[in-house]
Amino acid sequence: MRPVYMISGGITKFSKANPRQSFRLMVKESFDYALRDVPMLRRAMIDGSVGSYFSDHFTRQLKAATMVQDFLGLCPKPSKRIEGGGATGGLCFQAAWEAVASGRMDCCLAFGFETMSHVNTWKGNEFIALASDTNFDYPVGGFYSGYYAMMVVRHMYEFGTTVEQLAMVSVKNHKNALHNIWAQKHLDLTIEDVRNSPLVAYPLTMLDICTMSDGAACCILASEKVAEKVCPNPVRVIGIGTGTDAMRMADRPHGEVLLLKHEDPSWYKNLKYPGVHSFRAGRNATRLAYEHAGIENPLEDLDFIELHDAYTSSEIQTYEDLGLCRYGEGGKFIESGAPALGGKIPVNPSGGLIACGHPVGATGLMQAVFAFWQLQGTVAKHNNGDAKIQVKPKKKSRPMRGLIHSHAGTGTYVTVSIMESTS
Amino acid sequence: MAEKKETAKRTRKAPSSQLGHKPQWNKLRLPETDQGTVVFSTDPLIIKNHYEIDYIHSYAEDSPFFIGLSQGRLMGSECTGCRYKYATPRAYCMECGKKTKWIELPLEGKVHTWTTCYFGSEAFLKETPFNLVLVEFPGINTLLLARMIGVTQEELRVGMKIRAQFRRNSRFDPTDVYFVPAEPVTKREGTV
Ligand SMILES: [Zn+2]
Fold this sequence. Notes:
The structure holds 2 protein chains of 2 kinds.
Chain A (H helix, E strand, L loop, with lengths): L3 E8 L11 H15 L10 E5 L3 H4 L4 H8 L7 E4 L5 H14 L5 E9 L5 H9 L8 H4 L2 H16 L3 H15 L13 H6 L2 E3 L2 E2 L8 E10 H7 L4 E10 L9 E2 L17 E2 L5 H14 L4 H4 L2 E3 L5 H10 L8 H6 L16 H5 L3 H17 L24 E7 L5 E9 L2
Parallel strand pairs in A: 2-3, 2-4, 11-12
Antiparallel strand pairs in A: 1-7, 1-8, 4-7, 5-6, 8-13, 9-10, 12-13
Helix pairs in contact in A: 1-3, 4-16, 8-13
Chain B lengths: L1 H12 L25 E4 L2 E3 L15 H8 L4 E5 L5 E2 L13 E5 L3 E10 L12 E7 L7 E5 L12 E6 L10 E5 L11
Parallel strand pairs in B: 8-10
Antiparallel strand pairs in B: 1-2, 3-4, 3-5, 6-7, 6-9, 7-8, 9-10
The site of zinc ion has 8 residues of chain B, from loops.
C-alpha cells in the first residue's frame, strides 16, 4: 500500500437544528471550505468519494449520499455510502484512505453529515437505540444513555471510578471548546454544574452526555503525487486500526486483556476483560493502528488525541483502551490533568463531541479536520485567529502526531487513525 | 382477463378528453380533500411528515426463547463444542463456531451492573424512571439485559440477589421476564 495524505478539510458549524440547509447544502458548504483551503486542487482531480451518514430514519431518505454526490457535481465518478453507527465518520475516513492506499484513486473525498433535528430529542434517542439488538435489547428500554450508564456503573464497581472524575471530563472538554469557534456549545462549567444538571441515567447527567446536532464535514485524501502538487503542508496518515465487538453488550466475554506493546500481563492478573467496563473493539483498533504507525508508547509517541466522548464515561474508558494509562486508572488519569490542554497528552483539545456536537455521520470526519489543522499548525487560521487550543509538538526528534478515535454502539465498531505532520 | 375488463370499463368512462373531443381544461380537476398539512414555519418551510409501519417480524431460530418466557422459563444456549454457556439465544458459538443447544437458565442470579433511567427513548419515556440490570447467573458465561422492579435507585447495587418473574399475559418480547429482589432491600452504602 502506498502513502496517503490528508490535503484539506472543512466543516459546517454544528448546531442543534439547521432547517435552512438540507444535508446536501451542508455538505456542499463544508466541501467548498475544503476546496478554498487548497486552491490548486481542481474539482476534476477528485477521482471519487465515500459518503457517510448513520441513520436512514433521521434522513427519511434512502440513498441520500447519491444526492450529495450529484449536488457536489461529482457524477459519474465512483462513490459509496459507509454506515457504522457512531463510528460512521471514522469508517468513512478509513474507506477513503483505502481508496487512495490501494491505488484505486489518487484523490478521494470523504464526506459525512447528519440531520438529527428532524425529530424530537426523545424520538432521536429511539432511532439511535435501534442500533442495539431490536429483539433482545431495544424492547427492554432501548436507550443508549442507559447502556452507557450500566457500563460505567461496572467501571465504578471494578475500579472505584467516581462521578466527580466523570464530571471533570465534561468540564475539561467544555473549557477547551470556549476557544473553538466551531463548537456547538460554549460553556464554562464546574464539577458541581455537571453533577447538578438533571440525571439522565444514573450516574450520567445531561452534562455527561453529548447532544443531537445537524452538521456536515469533509476530508480530502490524496496520493503523494497529488499532495505534492496541490498542498504545501499535507498531513500523512500513518496508522489505521479497526475493531469490533458483540452487538449485545451482555454477550461480551470475561477473559484476558488484549495487550499493547508497552503493557505487562502481570498488570491485569485479576481483571476479567472486556466485560462491560471496557471496549475490546477500541483496544483492537488501537493495537492495529499502533502497529501500523510504529507507536511503542502512546504518551511519548503521540502529541494529542481527538476521541469519541459521546459520554464522559466513554472518554475515561477510552484512555484505557488507548493505553494512555492502565485499565482501571482512567479516573485517576483525568484527575492528574494529563489529558488537559498543556498536559502530558491533550485529549479533545477541540472540545470533543460533548461540546462540538455529534451529527453522527460527520463526527468522525470533524475529528479528522480538527486533527489536520492541529498537525498543520493552522488552528488560528481556521479559528478567528484564536490559537489557544493549538497543541505544540512534544518533541523535535520526530514529526508531530495526532490520533483520532471514532466509536459505535456500545463499542461495536471502533476506528483509530493516526496522522503525522510533514512540515 | 380481469385486467382487460378494468381497461374496458375505464375507457367507457373516459372523460371528454377522448380523441376527437376538445379538452375542457377548466373542467379538469383533482378531487379536493380536507387533508391539509401541519406547518411549523414558512421561513424556511417546515411541515409535519408522518411515518408509521407494521412489520411481519419473525423471531426465527430464536423463537424458543420467547416461547420459553411465556411458559416461565429462561432459555439460553450451550456450545456443543467448547461448552461456553450463553444467557441469550445464539444458534452458533461466538467463541468456537460450533452449534449450540438450548439450556434452561436458573431463575435466580445477581446484579452484574445496573442503572436507573430518568429519561428514555420516546417509546419508553412514559415508563420513567425505570431500572435496567445486566443479570449474571451462576455457571453461565454471559449476561442478560432486563428490567428490575421493587427497588429504587438508592437501593439498587451490584451483587444484589435477584429473581426472575414473568408476565402472566405474555407480550412475546424480552419484557416478558423482569427481575425482583431476592434479598432484603436496604439503602445502598457506596455509589454503585
Ligand atoms: Zn464454542
